[in-house]
Amino acid sequence: MSQLLTTRQAEELHKSIIAYLTSAELPNSASALREELGDAIALDDATIKKYEGLLEKKWTSVVRLQKKIMDLESRNAALQSELDSATPSSLSRRNQDPVSWLPRAPARHNLQSHRQPVTCVAFHPVFSSLASGSEDTTIKIWDWELGELERTVKGHTKAVLDVDYGGPRGGTLLASCSSDLTIKLWDPSDEYKNIRTLPGHDHSVSAVRFIPSGAAGSPMSGNLLVSASRDKTLRIWDVTTGYCVKTLQGHSDWVRDVAASPDGRFLFSGGNDQIPRLWDISSAETKATFLGHEHVVECVAFAPPTSYKYFTTLAGLRKPPPVSSSAEFVATGSRDKNIRLWDSRGTLIKTLGGHDNWVRAIIFHPGGKYLLSVSDDKTLRCWDLSQECKCVRTVTDAHGHFISCIRWAPSLITDGSVLNGEPGAGEPATPTAIMANGVKKDDSGGGVKGIRCVIATGSVDLNVRVFAS
Asked: Residue 96: what pLDDT?
């Protein structure tokens, strides 16, 4: 038999085996091996002591290295498939252009503190704060740049189901909703004090979103808030007074999710009745219904105007709608494992299949070219609208369990004042915050718009993860 080990290596191995057998209290086996080896090996007590743990150390390190090799091989395969599906233009622009940035493993931060599944996440519009809500009834505020927990906000008595930042200009608020039937407003500038509780829903409140005002100079700020509930209704609230100003009725079952259009004129909602609805806020009437899903609709989203050129091709239109129009196209994700893209009249444009379990949350890339989705199959998928909605990246095992939520850090807009931030109107935005995240001059003349290449996800594995460039 050919000898793989050198004489010295064989001697080391023999010593390690004898030392291991001795420490494991197997003296007969140890002496049998010593007898077989004869004079080839000399071992005293000191040498046995020296070699005692060596075999276990080598054994565990080999297993660890094998696992590392397997991880690297799977990562290599993922990168290769990504390379195969990439277009030359996306390859050349990827490094510098935030419009082409997509998340990749590993996450920059893995934030741990929640004691039960994480249900929701939301970014502060200006500062590096990230809020997460959980079934443990708490809201955690993190610094997503440093990856540190800043504070735990307590007040709800049951699971927190959604969180969102927004509100009046110069006075950003955090809104949360819960299975305890309430919506709460918290003031980030005053140590997240609970400044108002909005009762009124008759069952769990599953989603909450601030409605942008669309006003010039500060389009994303506004006093209105929309909530979706298991009581089958949507309610619109004035956060300055705490009054419910409108109740929208039409769904026949639990409303799971709601989104507001960027100009604050329309709402889009979906839930257990499997029929998403587009609402006109001013009339509180349903503008369109969307038929096609075969299971509960978990998530809804408005397509940003930056995506209209891609939707135009997908829908076979001759020219894209004006960028000033805010609710031209929408997307929905469902427990039927599919994502569907629609126009605002309820016409199905495309069905995106690929997830192996419920689709739990979707977001559009601010650049408009991609749609991102997370699912109970533990993956994060990126769909390229310019390539017939081909899945161009899959972050496998983005979490260790079902992924419940995903949010994109809001773009920074400056026209000489901080948008929606505590410093108040008129204070200059920090140039470093904008420059660090890839600046893009807004073609519509609305100041500088910086896409922040930062995404947060939350999961049943109790973790919040931050993916960043």
From this structure: 59
What integer pLDDT is reported at residue 200 of this predicted model? 85
Domain limits at 386?
A: 97-468
Q: Are residues 111 and 42 part of one domain?
A: no
Contact 235, 229 (CB under 8 A): yes
- d(C-alpha 109, C-alpha 314), whole Å: 36
**Distance (Å, rounded) from C-alpha 136 to C-alpha 152?**
11
Single out the residue in 25, 40, 74 at which a domain terminates: 74
- Residue 421 has a pLDDT of 37
Distances 361 to 29, 212, 358, 405, 460 between C-alpha atoms, Å: 60, 21, 9, 5, 14
pLDDT of residue 336: 94
- How many angstroms separate the CA atoms of 292 and 342, rounded? 10
| pLDDT level of residue 415 (50, 70, 90 thresholds) | very low
104 and 39 together in one domain: no
Assigned domain for 87 exists: no
- 254 lies in the same domain as 346: yes
182 with 291, same domain?
Answer: yes
pLDDT at 387 (0 to 100): 94
Q: What is the pLDDT of residues 345-397, one digit of tens each?
A: 999 999 999 999 999 999 999 999 999 999 999 999 999 999 999 999 999 98
Residues 222, 287 share a domain:
yes
Average pLDDT over residues 197-202: 90
Looking at the structure, do residues 355 and 299 belong to the same domain, yes or no? yes
The verdict on residue 85 lying in a domain is no
Give the other-Cβ count within 10 Å of 334's Cβ: 25
pLDDT of residue 426: 32
CATH number at residue 70: 1.20.960.30
Domain count, the chain: 2
Residue 1 belongs to some domain of the structure: no
